[in-house]
Amino acid sequence: MENDEIKTYFTNEALARFASAQGKVVEKVVCHLWQNKSQPDVVVEVIDNVEIHFTDKQKLTIGCNAEGDGLDAIVYNYKEAAQALEKEFEGKIRVYAIDASTTKMWTEVIGKTLKLVKIEKENGQYKSNAVLLDFETEKREIEVNPLDGIIIDYYDEEGVYQPFVDDEPS
């Protein structure tokens, strides 16, 4: 997140979820997307959260915190979320799940171990603006954007990022 004025930090519960996922082998990755169809001619989709499933049946779900200004390691129930949105917005906003395991972004991490979750530390607290997931030879950075939801990028040690979504019009 580029806005340095907003300071949010991970809770101890979130840090414990990250720590418990380290050392586990990735089985699949599911992304939950929000789709806003309140204007019929303009459909907006954003990544609400990314759920990393491990071979021991544990999962790590990274989404926005309750305020929407930082990340959190959340407990997420897709069916409950989908039903609540349907009821509240009468189908104009919905959430759906996609198995992202075979996408270019995630195919190289399937079967790899999540070695480390790296988080920037500031004054003894861990900032919730971004996390770096280290999967042996592959790294992914996840951050939150107030307008765009969850942003997932490849991470390169030299700081060269390859965008997950091409925002340029075709």
**Oligomeric grouping of the chains:** single chain
Order of helices and strands: HEEEEHEEEEEEEE
Beta fraction: 35-45%
Q: Give the biggest beta sheet.
A: 6 strands, antiparallel
Radius of gyration based on Cα positions: 16 Å
Anisotropy-based shape: globular
Alpha-beta classification: mainly beta
Task: Provide the helix percentage.
Answer: 10-25%
Provide the number of structural domains: 1
Helix run count: 2
Query: What is the mean predicted local confidence, pLDDT?
Result: 87
Low-confidence stretches: 159-170
How far apart are the first and last residues' alpha carbons, in Å?
26 Å
Tally of DSSP β-strands? 12
Question: Please, could you describe this protein's structure?
Answer:
The protein is mostly beta strands. It has one domain. Helices cover 13% and strands 44% of the residues. The protein is built from two helices and twelve strands; from the N terminus they run αββββαββββββββ. The protein has helices at residues 12-21, 78-89, and strands at 24-39, 42-54, 59-64, 71-74, 93-99, 113-114, 116-118, 121-122, 125-126, 130-135, 138-145, 149-154. The strands form three sheets. Strands 1, 2, 3, 4, 5 and 6 form a six-stranded antiparallel β-sheet that branches. A four-stranded antiparallel β-sheet has the order 7-10-11-12, covered by helices on one side. The longest helix is centred in the middle third of the chain and has 12 residues, at 78-89.
